[in-house]
Amino acid sequence: MESPHHYKIHTSTQDIHVNWNELTKSNLFLSKDYLLTLEKSAPQNMNCYYISLFENNKLVGIALAQFLDLNKLSSFGERDKCIKKSIRNVVFRNFCSHVLFIGNNMLTGQNAFQFHASLDAKIGVELLQAAAEEIKKTLKKKGIKVHITTFKDFNKTESTPFSIPVFQTYYRFSTQPNMVFKVNPNWHTFDDYVSALSKKYRDQYKRSRKKAEGIHKQKMNLDDILAHEETIYTLYFHVAQNAPFNTFFLPKNHFSELKKNLKDLFLFYGYFEDDKLIGFNTLIKNGNQMDTYFLGYDETIQREKMLYLNMLYDMIAYSINNGFKEIIFARTALEIKSSVGAKPEEMFGFIQHSNALINSKMDKLFCYLEPKTEWQERNPFK
Questions:
Q1: Torsion angle, CA of 355/358/360/362, rounded to 10 degrees?
Q2: CA 220 – CA 212 distance, rounded (Å)
Q3: Which of the two residues, 320 and 94, has the higher pLDDT score?
Q4: Is the pLDDT of residue 84 over 70?
Q5: Looking only at Cα atoms, what is the longest distance across the chain?
Q6: Could you tell me the residue ranges of all domains in the chain?
Q7: CA-to-CA separations, 289 to 112, 217, 241, 265, 292, in angstroms, rounded
Q8: DSSP letter string over 228-276?
Q9: Distance (Å, whole) CA 67 – CA 247
Q10: CATH class assigned to 5-176+346-369
């Protein structure tokens, strides 16, 4: 008997199903507007695929896939100047440079797919696995062999549908945690948050604010972003290049495209000293959840003015004052995010290598793919 389920894969948002957005109400990062931004300003080493799932010709699921060619990167990250970095780079170039993500490698959290309530999640992920195989075949016809296929990022509950036979050859891994800031229901203003801090962390807050005197924060519109595009990119690239590990770099027009497509749902704040842009941060409103996005700064000023910490406080202030329930701080700078009240949420993924022998050793290889970070969790509250 023929299955009532099937999938379709598209490479342009123009071709996706007319009802696509009906399934994105709970996640902006799968909406046509956000995907259109990716289409117009994705990293140059990334190709996006849009997957529709059907049950009896009714749209019951949508998903995003991204193919990354890491050979197109000049650097995977400059911070780790050591033998491990050299080994990692050799491993990547030869065995792991072509990666297919089912999900969004630019974000943290479950932004891979959305299923209608009527679709069994196990059937949904099985269909996505079949779609991933088809994408790999399509790439193979173009002379591109996918080395690694990975489904990311899922919390413990979200990862349960993957316990099916087609995922038995995938290695289940746990990455660095997603730092999530839950807004206490008793906090109605940012002052309530500051009052809830213990003396040590309230002193940290006061010290950081004092250090930042003389810096002016400005909400920037599309014209402002376009006018400062060169400086914005320089500040972003400096931070990105000094991260411990990178799989992509954004193009210059990414933030302006995001502002064009998401409008008031995308917030861009510039930090100025003597009318010179020295840093910026970005936020995306995703329902009652606030997602922190990319940022940039001048490292010399950042240290002196505690700019990054001040940005975190500003993000918290905006989110509390505007009634958001939580802030997704993602998975970098874990300790400093912990010091302002974010808590780690364990995230899981599923990874498979095209070479069966390498795949059987994935538990050993994975430490090179995902460098571990040692950090200490803080509790800033009374």
A1: -120
A2: 19
A3: 320
A4: no
A5: 71
A6: 5-176+346-369, 179-345
A7: 17, 23, 28, 11, 10
A8: THHHHHHHHHHHHHTSS--S----TTHHHHHHHHHGGGEEEEEEEETTE
A9: 11
A10: alpha beta
Query: Which residue type is seen at 153?
Result: D
Burial tier of 373 (Cβ tally within 10 Å: 0-12, 13-18, 19+) = middle
Contact in structure between 69 and 56 (CB atoms under 8 Å): no
Mean pLDDT of 108-123: 97
C-beta of residue 278 within 8 angstroms of C-beta of residue 271: yes
Residue 297 is encoded by which pair of tokens?
């700064």
Q: Do the domains spanning 5-176+346-369 and 179-345 agree at the CATH topology level?
A: yes
What are the beta bridge partners of residue 344? 179
To which residue do tokens 């995010």 refer?
337
Task: Give the whole-angstrom CA distance, residue 96 versus residue 291.
Answer: 29
This prediction's pTM = 0.93
Q: Could you tell me the CA-to-CA distances from 361 to 223, 353, 358, 364 in Å, in that order?
A: 51, 10, 5, 6
CA distance 291 to 85: 30
**What's domain 179-345's superfamily in CATH?**
Gcn5-related N-acetyltransferase (GNAT) (3.40.630.30)
| Ordered DSSP codes for 14-26 | GGS-TTGGGG-TT
3-state SS, one letter per residue, for 339-371? HCCCEEECCEEEEEECCHHHHHCHHHHHHHHCC
- The Cβ of residue 163 has, within 10 Å, a number of other Cβ atoms equal to 11
- How far, in Å, CA of 365 to CA of 354, rounded? 14
Please state, in angstroms and rounded to a whole number, the distance separating the CA atoms of residues 247 and 112. 17
> For residue 74, what pLDDT is reported?
65
Cβ pair 271, 277 in contact under 8 A: yes
> What span, in angstroms and rounded, lies between the C-alpha atoms of 197 and 154?
30
pLDDT for 78: 47
The string of pLDDT tens digits covering residues 255-306 is: 999 999 999 999 999 999 999 999 999 999 999 999 999 999 998 899 999 9
Q: Rounded CA gap, 182 and 61, in Å?
A: 29
Which candidate, 2, 94, 105, 102, places its Cα nearest to that of 54? 2
- The DSSP-derived string for 171-201 is EEEE-SPEEEEEPPTT--SHHHHHHHB-HHH
> Tokens 């807004």 belong to which residue?
183
